[in-house]
Amino acid sequence: MTATRSLEDWIAFARVDAERRGLPELKPLLGGLEAALRELRDADWNDDFGAEAATPAASATDDASPPTPTPTPTPIPPTTRSRA
Amino acid sequence: MAITPDPADLTILDAARALREQTLTSVDLTEACLARIDRDAARLHAFITVTADRARAQAAEADRERRSGLDRGPLHGIPISLKDLIDLAGTPTTAASRVRDGHVAVIDAPIVTHLREAGAVIVGKTNLHEFAMGTTTEDTAFGAARHPLDEARSPGGSSGGSAIAVRTGMGLASIGTDTGGSIRIPSAACGLVGLKPAFGEVSAEGVVPLSRSLDHVGPLARSVADAAALFEVLTGRDGRTGLFAHDTLAMNARSGHADLTAVAPSSYFLDLLQTEVRASFDAALERLRAGGVRIIQADLPHIRHAPAIYLPIVVSEGAAWHAPTLDTMGDAYTPNVRLRLEMGRYVPATDYIRAQRGREILRAEVDTLLADADMLLTPTLPIVAPPIGAATVPVGPDNHDEPVRAMMLRLTQPFNLTGHPAISIPISPASNNLPIGLQIVGRKTRRLLRVAHVCEQLLA
Q1: Which residues in chain B are contacts of A50 at CB distance < 8 A?
Q2: Which residues contact B6 (CB under 8 A, 6 or more apart)?
Q3: Taking chain A (84 residues) in consecutive chunks of 10 residues, what is each chunk's mean pLDDT?
Q4: Residue B336 forms contact with A (CB below 8 Å)
Q5: Is the peptide bond before B158 cis (omega within 30 degrees of 0)?
Q6: What is the pLDDT of residues B335-385, one digit of tens each?
Q7: How far is CA B398 from CA B156, B268, B274, B282, in A?
Q8: What ipTM was estimated for this complex?
Q9: What does the DSSP 8-state code read for residue B89?
Q10: Is residue B29 exposed (0-12), middle (13-18) or buried (19+ Cβ within 10 Å)?
Q11: 3-class SS at B425?
């Protein structure tokens, strides 16, 4: 199992693993973890997450290449619920 | 006729003055605190280990040194306690867990060495939420801690035993740890001053970690000046140099002209408050404004993501440290703490990195907010001390239920993520007389302490 799989797959695996390890009480907590990880993956600062890996190898190792610009975060309206 | 206060109720600086003027001895002061421990500690589950004999010997030594002309500064001969995550040579560091059965610290944590060199008298080790993984001090192998003003309620946590000890005179201050608010939360819940210094400023060596990139060490005390005296010693500075001597900020405040600017963010920090907390916070802002503090509104664009950033970091860093004992003695943990640590094993590394990137965004946003202001003001806790055993609490204008843990961490955890120094000071309760705290966040800890000292005076 790798993190390139969907979050749903990952949490489903975690639930099965928790059951197998004799920790069924962990399963409800994994719902909270899933919500937090979903929020992180959807956050605007992670829009380019992994983009470096898609850069051609030559330019990725070329010292003369300009650095990848840092993304400017855009404001997000606040919510009214804590998800921790 | 003036009533002489019990010395156990003095602030550190008042006790230090009395010791210096030889109207009080450290032995008498320490005995007064030990008497409070005898009276209340077992009922409130405040202490895990009491080091009475050692404390008496340290107090006698402090008195001998004073008589010989040696003055080690404001902590000389002052009884204090340590959260039982901090190594004190020759005593167990239980972390409030059966997992640590049989452990005895071989050497003092560096902060304990600093405290000893400053002449502090250590009266014992206080109860906490097991391994600091919680906010109520209920999940502990040594009995759920009880609020000193209402024993059906939690004193907050994880440094709950420390807060009880300071509030009830079982020592004049305590040293705690703060990973998501564990100094500020119980300080606010019990009506104390609690300081989380800037990240890395106070050594966490010799302290059982929860999350190494979020852990902070700092004092719980009865005044900002006491917290400042402790902070100076904890950082290895000479505590004899008073932080507030000739402080122009304080002098201006006394004349009613505090020349300070505060940012009071509205969204997130005020979204989910109990009514009495909101009323008390608004009243505090009014009093600060009347004292000459300019208060402006501004927001942190990504602050709503703080809980989602915090969770994967704290549980995965915690799981990494606990992995060997989770495997071999999982049943020795309290069930809730075990499950939260186990959850950390299911955080993908890529998501941990995503969270760390979010942390950088938040840090930059707080820096920006504080670039033109002296402080950021928020309530410390959205709620008053919750009933022991409560899973949810009513919050917000519609009184809907939210999880206790999420609510208790909500307003403090952002500054563990950003590493900014933050302090909680008590403000006037609005209705039911349970304490309420004001959180003040700054750029640098010593400057924050001076600013908080002014706010404390304006709110007195």
Answers
A1: 350
A2: B32, B169
A3: 74 96 96 97 87 56 41 39 32
A4: no
A5: yes
A6: 999 999 999 999 999 999 999 999 999 999 999 999 999 999 999 999 999
A7: 24, 16, 10, 19
A8: 0.91
A9: T
A10: buried
A11: strand
Q: Which residues contact B83 (CB under 8 A, 6 or more apart)?
A: B125, B126, B128, B158, B159, B161, B162, B174, B175, B176, B177
Residue A34 vs residues B247, B312, B367: alpha-carbon distances, Å: 50, 10, 30
Which one of the listed residues B97, B159, B174, B182 is annotated catalytic? B182
Rg (CA), chain B: 21
Tokens of B305: 């993501």
Q: Identify the H or E element spanning B375.
A: strand B375-379
Please tell me if residue A49 touches chain B, with a CB cutoff of 8 Å: yes
Known catalytic membership, residue B83: yes
Q: What is the pTM of this model?
A: 0.92
Q: How many C-beta atoms lie closer than 10 Å to residue B411's C-beta?
A: 29
- Show residues of chain A in contact with B347, CB under 8 Å: 33, 37
H helix runs in B371-422, sequence order = 404-410, 413-418
Buried b (16+ CB within 10 A) or exposed e, A46-74: beebeeeeeeeeeeeeeeeeeeeeeeebe
